[in-house]
């Protein structure tokens, strides 16, 4: 028997977010290439938009999708209690225990309940999303949002923060995809929302413990 545990809104916003992130990262690389911060550029093949103007149009258009979709995910996740249930609490002791288990290749990773490392990483990537939007605003409209730009230490530093945030999201995504390949049944649950009742029972037991 399979039990639905992941609401449709969470699944749909996750996949829209994955698409939006792909567009934002690749168009962002195109914008970066026009005026690199560091001593390298990205290969044109991985950029979106073809030239600075095209990349900028993609970046600013998809930005609205990313922000609207992110707000919907957060509002629904908080109001329905889903985020509180699946991602909290994150206790330091449990995190250290799960890191030890992961290093010994004994950490449970299954659909239906998140281990503490997953919880911490998902919370971190959601916070990174907030950092990307705020640092993006700071460099998009540095005059209108001057207090925000100042909070980031000025335009140049906000640009570096925006770049490093993107790099951190790419690292998360690489790890995330490795885990999906290692535990492919989680992919099915992110599409259908279902998980085997066995996993659900284990999740319920963990919740009570
Ligand atoms: C930058 C892009 C991505 C971000 C920021 C992201 C973020 C997240 C977050 C926060 C969750 C927890 C969702 C929740 O329960 O509310 C999640 C779960 C999941 N994501 Fe992603 N994701 C991204 C891309 C992808 C891609 C490309 C795939 C697969 C091809 C994928 C597959 C999954 C799966 C299968 C789960 C469920 C994991 C489980 O139940 O153990 N994600 N993702």
Automatic annotation (TrEMBL):
The chain crosses the membrane at residues 12-32, 57-83, 120-140, 160-183. It comes from the Bacteria. InterPro entries: Cyt_b561_bac/Ni-Hgenase, Di-haem_cyt_TM, Hydrogenase_cytochrome, Ni-dep_Hydgase_cyt-B. GO terms for cellular component: plasma membrane. Residues 7-193 form the Cytochrome b561 bacterial/Ni-hydrogenase domain. The keyword Membrane applies. It is found in: Cell membrane. It is a multi-pass membrane protein. Its main location: membrane. Keywords: Cell membrane, Electron transport, Heme, Iron, Membrane, Metal-binding, Transmembrane, Transmembrane helix, Transport. The keyword Iron applies. Pfam families: Ni_hydr_CYTB. SUPFAM superfamilies: Transmembrane di-heme cytochromes (SSF81342). One of its GO terms (biological process) is respiratory electron transport chain. GO terms for molecular function: electron transfer activity; heme binding; iron ion binding. Belongs to the HupC/HyaC/HydC family. This is Thiosulfate reductase cytochrome b subunit. It comes from Rhizobium leguminosarum.
